[in-house]
User: Fold this.
Amino acid sequence: MVGEENKGLAAMFVMMNAARLGVGIQGLGQADIAFQNAVQYAQDRRQGRALTGPADPQEKADPLFVHPDVRRMLMDSKATVEGLRALCLWGALQVDLAHVAETEEERQQADDLVSLLTPVIKGYGTDRGYDVATNAQQVFGGHGYIEEQGMSQYVRDARITMIYEGANGVQAMDLVGRKLAQNGGRAIQAFFAIVDSECAAAKDKPAFADFAARLEKANGELKAATMWFMQNGMANPNNIGAGAHHYMHIMGIVALGSMWLMMAEAAQKALDEGRGNKAFLEAKLVTARHFGERFFPDAGALRRKIEAGSEAMMALTPDQFFAA
Ligand SMILES: Cc1cc2nc3c(=O)[nH]c(=O)nc-3n(C[C@H](O)[C@H](O)[C@H](O)COP(=O)(O)OP(=O)(O)OC[C@H]3O[C@@H](n4cnc5c(N)ncnc54)[C@H](O)[C@@H]3O)c2cc1C
Assistant:
């Protein structure tokens, strides 16, 4: 007998929660290595010409790096990988604080945040990790489909992280069906408050006002989606199930946005003080801007999907799915 009789499920969840965070980090690792390969390939492979005129006129073609659509995939990947890495580290810090923070209140809040964000790190993290691996494969064009390059292996490996340790649809239900309401919504209220205070502090700084306004808006979409669930979930629980995946993704966008604001502020501070690697720090600022421009707008679209409810989603009989 390990532990107390009839307390096995609770003990199992100690292991499961750690495993879920571990799988989130696995998704991040696969995304990162696939991304690094794509960056290298985009430098080496020459195909077509820059839209603005030849970048390397002495060569027969320009490197893939000149094409905005290749940049789209690489920048989305960079913004995701670095944002997720920061979120995983921040989550690990909360795990430590839950044990060793000075006050009971701080330990409680850290524990609440880890519990709330575990399905996000696992579910959103591996959904996005798979997207990054697929985009990295896409950067290789036809060569991405050839086993020898190794890119399709990354995609396959990233795919399992969305399924095991609880499929991502179940992670989303854990977030929306259990974690939001726990302790009267204490964890989600703490999360909202952290993001709000981060935005309020950044809005006064001209370099970050735009980013902070975008993050605040995305956090507002998350609040509105939470309220919509409260108003429409009791009458029809399918409304919660139909929106759970989207909700998990809005929370992922807000959580990564919060990380990007912290990273950008830290990078700017180091630049102002003449510390660190300038190219690295400047890249952080540009990547944060890319995240703000390209990821925050999705929060509004996802909220609208949630507010569409579940009627059309649940209306067809299984037979009607076969009707041609
Ligand atoms: C390669 C591999 C290794 C594994 N290793 C281990 C291991 O070492 N130990 C171990 O214990 N398990 C292991 N598993 C099992 C794994 O954890 C499960 O496969 C996973 O949790 C999904 O459960 P399932 O296969 O029963 O899918 P199902 O529960 O049948 O889910 C099928 C689909 O329905 C959705 N779904 C199911 N229920 C709901 C719901 N209530 N609400 C919304 N959507 C729902 C899911 O999201 C999923 O998309 C492994 C699986 C694989 C593929």
Remarks:
- Residues 160, 163-167, 169-170, 173 surround flavin-adenine dinucleotide (CB under 6 Å).
- The chain has twelve helices and no strands.
